[in-house]
Write a structure and sequence with these properties.
Helix 1 packs across helix 4. The termini are far apart. This protein is mostly helical. 78% of the residues lie in helices and 0% in strands.
Length: 375
């Protein structure tokens, strides 16, 4: 095939891989809540203990967070198909002898990656608790964790552990091309320990010593395991690998045993047991609902009391207005009478007749008595 044909095939396989990832995002879009809770579970107890929050600073942050989580979930779902597309592009350039180790190491690599990611997830609660312990050294310090940064850090740690657990694959590849041997690995194990410590320091995204230690110790164990694997695959005098039944059984059971051990560790540490966290969240939400209901009830009672007081004051004001209205009508009536009395003429006082009154009777009696005395 010419270069143009290789580029055309590469373009086609890249488009297929992107289509697989898009389909995975669509399939996992409605599972955002469950995936987010699983990734948030290591940080949940710390947020509750420190009254921390996950603030959303921008209007688009929530949507971008959902897209990022769905992309990672879709990439995880589509990873086998993407790997097949990559293998389909590379396989024609390999000989049958070169393809044979890859067909064996591919499932081995997947199991090692899952074991590394599981180990990282089991270490996350201890790692985040250790980091959160320094918050108490800051006076009045409060945890306001950005959700996007937290998800990015968590995924980085999972990927770093998954890649670190690929150490047996790398060592088997180096032994396959003749750069190292089992005897060399045994002789220089001290140098390998230093190299593993440096690699753990470089691969750890959080740069904390606890995560570095949790990554370095399993890598050292995988290095010792790789010595046996390399010895099993070393070619003999005839140039063929010395594959015995015991070595093949060991090679077949090692990744399975490692994955079982990691799964048991996750089960013992309750890493995936997010029910208590969900129960605590439900209790907090129920308490918040009750507090809101009580506050609403108090506001309603206060509103009713205020309306009752306002109604009583309104009634009193209406009575006062009614009294003032009556008084105003009375004053208007008096004013009208005064105006009428002022406008009408004044009548003369009547004179009394002579026969009226006791004074005239006394005068008439005195004149009569005087006439009787004069003959």
């Amino acid at each position: 095939m010419e270069l143009v044909e290789h580029l055309a095939e590469l373009r086609t396989r890249i488009f297929r891989s992107l289509f697989y990832i898009a389909v995975g995002m669509v399939l996992t879009y409605n599972l955002f809540g469950a995936i987010y809770e699983v990734l948030l579970a290591p940080l949940g107890p710390i947020l509750q203990a420190m009254n921390g929050q996950l603030p959303v600073r921008n209007i688009a942050d929530a949507f971008l967070l959902r897209m990022q989580v769905c992309f990672l979930a879709g990439l995880t779902v589509a990873f086998p198909l993407v790997t097949l597309e990559l293998w389909g592009f590379v396989a024609p350039a390999l000989t049958p002898e070169e393809r044979r180790p890859v067909t064996f190491l591919a499932p081995f690599s997947v199991l090692l990656f899952l074991s590394g990611a599981g180990t990282a997830y089991a270490c996350l609660p201890a790692t985040y608790s250790w980091m959160a312990g320094f918050i108490t050294d800051i006076p009045f310090g409060t945890l306001f964790q950005d959700p996007q940064q937290y998800m990015l850090l968590t995924v980085k740690i999972l990927l770093a552990f998954g890649l670190a657990f690929q150490l047996p694959i790398v060592l088997l590849f180096l032994a396959r091309i003749g750069l190292i041997t089992a005897e060399m690995m045994t002789k220089y194990w001290r140098h390998a320990t230093v190299i593993i410590a440096i690699a753990a320091a470089l691969l750890t995204p959080s740069n904390d010593p606890l995560t570095m230690l949790m990554m370095g110790v399993p890598m050292a164990g995988l290095y010792l395991l790789s010595i046996g694997l390399v010895r099993a695959f070393e070619p003999g005098e005839d140039g063929q690998p010395k594959k015995t039944i015991g070595s093949m059984v060991l090679i077949s059971l090692v990744p399975v045993a490692l994955l079982i051990a990691v799964s048991f560790w996750l089960w013992r540490t309750h890493a995936f047991h997010i029910a208590p966290y969900q129960k605590t969240l439900a209790a907090a939400e129920l308490q918040k609902i009750q507090e809101d209901a009580e506050a609403q009830k108090a506001r309603q009672e206060q509103t009713e009391t205020t309306q009752k007081d306002q109604g009583e004051r309104l009634r009193i004001l209406e009575e006062q207005v009614e009294q003032q209205t009556r008084l105003l009508e009375e004053l208007r009536e008096e004013l009208r009478q005064l105006r009428e009395a002022r406008q009408s003429p004044t009548a003369p006082a009547p004179r009394p007749t002579p026969t009226e009154g006791p004074l005239l009777e006394g005068v008439g009696g005195a004149a009569a008595s005087r006439g009787s005395l004069n003959p």
